[in-house]
Write a structure and sequence with these properties.
244 residues, mainly alpha
């Protein structure tokens, strides 16, 4: 089911079906090269201090400084697979490699052809942030995927005039709340952009409101933990800001 295109997106709809072909060869090559580099270097330098911290935390719905996903994953890998840096960093490597694909799909969705996709894939694969957050297992490692994925889904919802993609946005945001609440800043930026340049009717469309409700529903247990513990993450954030 497709809704009528809004005024702000109608100029893109005619070309929505003419999305360029996926540049499979160059993109897969960039992903493979990044995977090799991160895998070879994954056992260097020992554990990062955050990795040491995560592996000692007991399972819980949340902690004073972050949601539960990354600490639980690190603890599981270190206690049930192998207590080695390269094991703990496997998810970070997968996140980084996946981010190359997602960012390239954003380029493709915006009309980028084979050359643009290849350039994007290799630039993303060996960007400083990709190499840094793909080398160690941090909460920011998953951001490599989440932020461009949310952007991709929003772009598809608009350029393809298919608002059902907004529900996928809600699912991704809701799940990512178990990793970092900072994804709310991305949503604030999207809302601000819509308010400034449109299409403004999206701000009160049932699909966007449904997406927001879905995100809150999925993220409710983590938000409940924060609320019932007097929002420890906000307290920690203020303390870090004061001491920085």
């Amino acid at each position: 089911m497709r809704s009528a295109p809004t005024e702000g997106s109608s100029r893109f709809v005619a070309g929505a079906a003419a999305v360029p072909r996926f540049a499979r060869g160059p993109v897969l090559a960039a992903m493979a090269a990044l995977a090799v580099v991160l895998t070879v270097a994954s056992n260097d330098y020992g554990f990062h201090r955050d990795e040491l911290y995560f592996r000692m935390l007991r399972p819980g719905w949340g902690y004073v400084d972050q949601p539960p996903l990354t600490p639980l994953l690190v603890r599981f890998l270190s206690h049930h697979v192998a207590d080695e840096p390269w094991v703990v960093r496997i998810p970070a490597t997968l996140y980084a490699v996946t981010s190359v694909l997602v960012v390239t799909l954003v380029t493709r969705e915006l009309g980028g052809g084979r050359g643009a996709q290849a350039l994007c894939a290799w630039a993303c694969a060996f960007a400083t942030s990709t190499l840094l957050f793909g080398h160690v297992m941090l909460t920011s490692s998953l951001d490599l995927v989440v932020w461009p994925l949310v952007s991709l889904l929003v772009i598809r919802a608009e350029l393809r005039a298919d608002p059902r993609w907004w529900l996928a946005v809600g699912v991704v945001v809701g799940l990512s709340m178990y990793n970092k609440l900072l994804v709310v800043m991305l949503l604030a930026a999207l809302v601000g952009g819509l308010a400034l340049v449109g299409p403004r009717p999206l701000l009160w469309s049932r699909w966007v409101l449904g997406s927001a409700c879905l995100a809150l529903l999925i993220g409710a247990p983590n938000l409940w933990f924060q609320a019932t513990h007097e929002w420890p993450q906000l307290t920690m954030g203020r303390a870090l800001a004061e001491n920085s």
